[in-house]
Design goal:
The protein has 194 residues and is mainly α. It has a single domain, classed as Jann2411-like domain (Jann2411-like fold, Orthogonal Bundle). Helix content is 47%, strand content 8%. It has six helices and six strands; from the N terminus they run αββαααββαββα. Strands 1-2 form a two-stranded antiparallel sheet. The chain has a two-stranded antiparallel sheet with strand order 3-4. The protein has a two-stranded antiparallel ribbon with strand order 5-6. Strand 5 and strand 6 form a beta hairpin. The longest helix is centred in the middle third of the chain and has 20 residues. The protein is globular, with a radius of gyration of 18 Å. The N and C termini lie far apart (52 Å).
């Protein structure tokens, strides 16, 4: 069985609290020999869910579960791209609603903690995905979701947590993606001047 690295990408600190789990979930991928991001295989997604205690070793993970992951990931990434300016597309809303309903998400009010949205079913892939939808929902409600961004580098597109005061961050890592963008811009200026 292949091993996968679930450590943070780049030099930008991880998102705080539960958003870190959501951020890592959205950033699962593998690279080909040229370094291109490829869709994660089923065993990587399953391994991540097991590592984060959202799925037990005994629970199955099918190709259909992988397809559901891809749909969920894309719907949440589209929410990040839309930001405050655009409404959620009916397609993305449908994906999130369907997964939330399958998990039986319900509100849970804690006396000592902030309210949460939790899956009714405690195990299985539906509950694992429901936990991800719940994190997205609660963070959208409390405003912390607005700090999640997609890296502006078209070859990367990792989700990062923008800690800048005016939310102007563009790259998941200034030392890699930001530097590549600066080098590209410099080369374009050199060509234009030539």
């Amino acid at each position: 069985m292949a091993t996968f690295d679930f450590s943070p990408h780049g030099d930008t600190p991880s998102a705080p609290g539960d958003l870190e789990l959501l951020q890592r979930f959205l950033n699962l991928h593998v690279h080909d020999a040229e370094g291109t991001h490829l869709e994660p295989p089923a065993e990587q997604i399953r391994g991540f869910l097991m590592e984060r205690h959202l799925l037990s070793e005994q629970e199955r993970f099918t190709d259909a579960d992988r397809e559901t992951y891809l749909g969920l990931r894309d719907a949440i990434r589209n929410l990040i791209l839309a930001g405050d300016e655009e409404a959620v597309s009916p397609t993305d809303a449908g994906v999130l609603d369907r997964i939330g309903l399958a998990a039986g998400l319900h509100p849970h009010f804690h006396a000592a903690h902030a309210p949460t949205l939790e899956p009714k079913e405690g195990t299985g892939v539906a509950a694992a995905y429901g936990a991800i939808v719940a994190i997205a929902f609660v963070s959208a409600f409390d405003g912390s979701f607005d700090h999640l961004k997609l890296c502006a580098d078209e070859t990367c597109r990792s989700v990062f947590y923008d800690r800048s005061k005016n939310r102007s961050g563009r790259w998941c890592s200034m030392s890699t993606c930001g530097n590549r963008a600066k080098v590209r811009a410099w080369r374009e200026r050199q060509r234009a001047d030539a």
